[in-house]
Amino acid sequence: MGRQSIRLFSCFALAIAVTVGSRGQDLAKVHREAEAKWAAETGLPLSAVHELWRLASHYADSDDDDSQIESLDTQALASRRHILLVTSAGENSCLTLTVFLATTPYHKIWSEQQTPEGHDWCGPAAKVTVNHGEIDISMPEEGDPESSGPQTVTVDAWGWNGTTYQYAGTRRFNQFSVGNPPRTLPLSSFQLPEKVTSLLETSGCSVAQTDLVPSPNNVVKGEFAKRGQQDWLVLCWNGYQNVPLIVWGGNLSCDSPFARDLGRFVKTDQLKATIVPELEAAPEVKDPRMEGDHQWIRIRWSPFTTLFYSCDDGRWTKHSGERCKTEKHAITASTTAVQEASATQQNDNQLWRSDPVAVARAELRRILGSIVPPFVLPVLGDEVKCEEALSIKQLCYYWDKSSGISASVGVERLAPGARFATETSVTTCSQ
């Protein structure tokens, strides 16, 4: 090797050494900044954050480790005294999940970076959430990005078996393209205890809003496990599902969620939307067969569709229809009454027969007045709304949330200027 060749080789080696050294310094700076950030967010000492990151690392030397802390959660699994660390590494930002026992010195009890089938969680679309003690990793499946059809999302679940976190299965569902999430409000829009807000924020929660009521909704305080224990129920939109999450206020609880997803998708050529229910704390049951010492959760999909869930002995029980009774009746107007109404349509006493809302109100007063115990009839103003079902028929609705009574009245035009109620449906729910 000539003197010039040796000089060139030396310069090349020096350049490599400078580049490697510079990269190591850059990584060290990035790591220090990240550790400071997560120490501030979690309240852990800076040294503890560094220790957790190093325990999760596959590298013996931190200078070689390009992994970044994506999240450090000390709250979501706190009931088990666990800490969840999520890191990403490599060109594709693939995730590694690690759970530690929250005692010093820290002890790693579980770590995973792929499913049992060998699928990695890579890219910015991979999300990690904790729902009722279960660790969920969601990933959209690859498909045509230009397609307007629903996108398939997979959620890999890992549950605690008493010793470690065990694969609990993969769920798949369709998610419509961007522009179709439900209407939501941030957690800051509600007056929640600081602890409740902190726990919900770890799940990426914003509050899904129903269109059944105009005011902010789906944040509910109740006694769902036992009387005297104040719990909080929130319908959380986490970016792909409406998940009902409960922050328990004491030692009694039901661990698993009572529903995986409270969202119904509607799609036509012009419409793609998510239907969101209203969640409420149901008053204590009056029916002796179903008495309990705590409240149930009531889910209203519409004024006429209601489900209930109760938390008993650590398990959720679904109740459908036991607390609601529906009665339907067909009504036949006499020929004489129709003829008289049509003949006297100009009479001031009969003008209301041409207004479907007025006809519906009259019929509602009649049928609601017959309910036992007696129903204190309101004015029945704007609460009664009618929609055209056919050219000669209107379907009118009434819902009184405070009494748990909902009703529909079919109003038909049987002759010019003469509308009559032809069918009724009344649903009463015990309060």
Keywords:
431 residues, alpha+beta, five-stranded antiparallel sheet, 24 strands, 37% strand
Compute the number of strand runs: 24
Beta-strand portion reads: 35-45%
Largest sheet: 5 strands, antiparallel
Helix content class: 10-25%
The average pLDDT value, as a whole number, equals 76
Shape: elongated
Q: Into how many domains do the coordinates divide?
A: 3
Low-confidence stretches: 12-21, 144-149, 266-272, 285-291
| Number of H- or I-type helical stretches | 5
Order of helices and strands: HHEEEEEEEEEHEEEEEEEEEEEHHEEEE
Radius of gyration: 30 Å
Structural class designation:
alpha+beta
Distance between the termini: 95 Å
Question: What is this structure, in a nutshell?
Answer:
Helix content is 19%, strand content 37%. With 431 residues, it is α+β, with helices and mostly antiparallel strands. Strands 9, 10, 11, 12 and 13 form a 5-stranded antiparallel sheet that branches. A 5-stranded antiparallel sheet has the order 20-24-23-22-21. It has a 4-stranded antiparallel sheet with strand order 1-2-3-4, covered by helices on one side.
Q: How would you describe this protein?
A:
This protein has 431 residues and is an alpha+beta fold. The strands form 6 sheets. Strands 9, 10, 11, 12 and 13 form a 5-stranded antiparallel β-sheet that branches. A 5-stranded antiparallel β-sheet has the order 20-24-23-22-21. It has a 4-stranded antiparallel β-sheet with strand order 1-2-3-4, with helices on one face. About 7% of the residues have low confidence.
